[in-house]
Amino acid sequence: MKMLIDAGADINAIVPSVNGGETVLLYALLHGKLNMAKLLIAKGASPYPKHVCDDAMFLAAWKGYTEVTKMLLKDLPDSWRYKNSYRLGTPLSIAAEEDHEEVVKILLKNRSIHDLFEDEAVVDAYEKAAPNARKVILEKREEQIRKAPGLLQKYPEYRYLFKNTHSHYALI
After folding, report:
1. In this predicted model, what pLDDT tens digit does every residue of 106-146 receive, in sequence order?
2. Any idea where the domains of the chain sit in the sequence?
3. Model-level pTM?
4. HEC states along the chain?
5. Would the pLDDT of 41 be above 50?
6. In angstroms, how far is CA 133 from the centroid of its own chain?
7. CB burial class (10 A; 0-12, 13-18, 19+) of residue 3?
8. Most buried residue, 51, 54, 105, 144, by CB count within 10 Å?
9. At a CB cut-off of 8 Å and minimum separation 6, what does 78 contact?
């Protein structure tokens, strides 16, 4: 693979498939070729190719690939929340549904201050979650509730986000 890349092969070329098309990166993820996937990411393969049903973050979360998930988050920190229209879920929801606890932890850890309050992606993930992943989501939620009063003092502009959310009612 490295030889082909070094020779100038198009690492983002789309190969027709039953899903509408796959790139080499998506094929590597689908078939568990993690070293190949890491090489492709390092060489600049697009994790979100146009005109393809799947994306790399969704597949990494679905398969439970923690290292690939971490690599993708470095370049695309908000990618855990994007809904995959073909699969009708987010990377977080599919990781939770498949009970990939470590991937769920990685995706939740990546959340920004803006996301500490209600987020549709987290609610969706919780509703679909298998037991162990649901526990991880609840633990993260409890941690957020404990931090909320201090965060609201430090970042008063987030009060409007917090009002009338599940976390808000938990503090009342």
Report:
1. 988 866 444 544 567 777 787 888 999 989 888 887 777 67
2. 1-54, 77-172
3. 0.67
4. CHHHHHCCCCCCCCECCCCCCECHHHHHHHCCCHHHHHHHHHCCCCCCCCCCCCCHHHHHHHHCCHHHHHHHHHHCCCHHHCCECCCCECHHHHHHHCCCHHHHHHHHHCCCHHHHCCCHHHHHHHHHCCHHHHHHHHHHHHHHHHHHHHHHHHCHHHHHHHCCCHHHHHHC
5. yes
6. 14
7. exposed
8. 54
9. 112
Interatomic CA distance for residues 2 and 46, integer angstroms: 16
Residues composing the chain: 172
Helix (H) or strand (E) holding 25: helix 24-30
